[in-house]
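Quick start: what a row looks like.
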Amino acid sequence: MQPRDFQRNYSPRQNGRVVCLLYEIRWRSGSIWRNWCLNNHEQHAEVNFLENHFNNRPQTPCSITWFLSTSPCGNCCSRILEFLRSHPNVTLIIYAAKLFRHLDIRNRQGLRNLMVNGVTIRIMNLEDYRYCWRNFVAYQPGEDNCWPQNVTLCFILNNTELLHIFLPDILLRKRKWSTEQERRPGLELSVGLSHPLWGKQVLA
């Protein structure tokens, strides 16, 4: 990807002309595939990847990481879940530069559905931008540190909103655990909620 295209489309402050999806596939053999795709007139970038960039791949275990210029919409979230159900040996991690129409209940529910089904969703931070720049962008010598401005501030704002989207499911899990503990008062458990924003367990 060209530097200007990356900077324009992955800016966390504004929407780009297209939706970009940088992807990295790590196979059990240790090999790594990196490439990228875009949306088109018929498909969003996520569906384009699923149908044209991973279609007919062998059913071998692998880990897929997406770096999206914007988070998936509700419809794409449903397609992603269908894909993962038909590919049980595949794990998916999604990094997004910004949230797509996050006030739309369909998009919010779609992201929650991904999270409760084991998909890790995170907002890209400065280190993620560095990683993409070095591994996906055809930059020239002397352009080692060129990425969108105000990344840290936008990261905080988008991260906070993503937490608000996921919070109902986190509280529901805690409530279910509390109910189970009341039924079995002698049970001592350390329950951790795997939270996509921090990448570690959060004790409830």
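That is the whole record. The chain is about 40% helix and 20% strand. The beta strands are 20-27, 32-38, 62-68, 90-96, 120-123, 192-195, 200-203.
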